[in-house]
Write a structure and sequence with these properties.
Elements lengths: L32 E7 L7 E12 L3 H8 L58 E15 L2 E13 L32
Antiparallel strand pairs: 1-2, 2-3, 3-4
């Protein structure tokens, strides 16, 4: 929980040392870029070797952080897609009135029998690091004609991803799930 959270923390929840609500790793780092161009035989050839490297930190979108705000027990997140918006067309993409009265705040209790999903962001979250690099050779064969052969690469680490920790469980007669005792695609929730 963020250091500026005014309430009492639930058992097992730790207070962060900052207002980010997570460890705040790599929030103040540098991302260097370096490039070069070298004419291999000056005056005799138009052959040029070019290369570059850059590292870039991707600013996390609100996607990762709204999950903390809109996750149970603070609120309920609703998606107006799929069966919930089955009557949508390009002319009328949303049910009217929008938002519908059913969309207004409702805070169901979370229990093993509820279908509420809890969202969370890892406390050691850090922004994605993208590294890009290239090396190529260019030769001007004649005026207006350029031949280039090169390699371009990209590597991403600490990319944002979602994991579904609430996987569908197998149902059985001895262990029914929400009243279902057989496994079919129709009763997966």
């Amino acid at each position: 929980m963020a250091s500026n959270f005014p309430g009492e923390l639930p058992p097992g929840v730790l207070r962060a040392t900052n207002t980010f609500g997570n460890a705040g790793n790599v929030q103040d780092t540098i991302a260097p870029r370096l490039g070069f161009a070298w004419q291999l035989w000056p005056g005799k050839s138009r052959l040029v070797l070019r290369g570059g490297y850059g590292s870039y930190y991707s600013r996390p979108t609100g996607q990762a952080f709204y999950q903390n705000v809109f996750g149970a027990p603070f609120s309920e997140f609703r998606i107006n897609a799929g069966r919930a918006n089955a009557s949508a067309t390009f002319q009328a993409p949303f049910p009217q009135p929008f938002p519908t009265p059913e969309s207004f705040p409702m805070f169901p209790a979370y229990s093993p029998t509820s279908s509420t999903t809890i969202y969370s962001v890892a406390p050691d979250f850090r922004p994605a690091l993208i590294q890009q690099y290239s090396l190529n050779v260019q030769d001007e064969l004649r005026d207006g004609w350029l031949l280039e052969i090169g390699y371009v690469g990209t590597r991403g680490t600490h990319l944002v991803r979602q994991r579904s920790l609430n996987q569908a469980l197998p149902a059985s007669v001895n262990d029914p799930i929400r009243g279902e005792s057989t496994n079919t695609f129709a009763n997966i929730r």
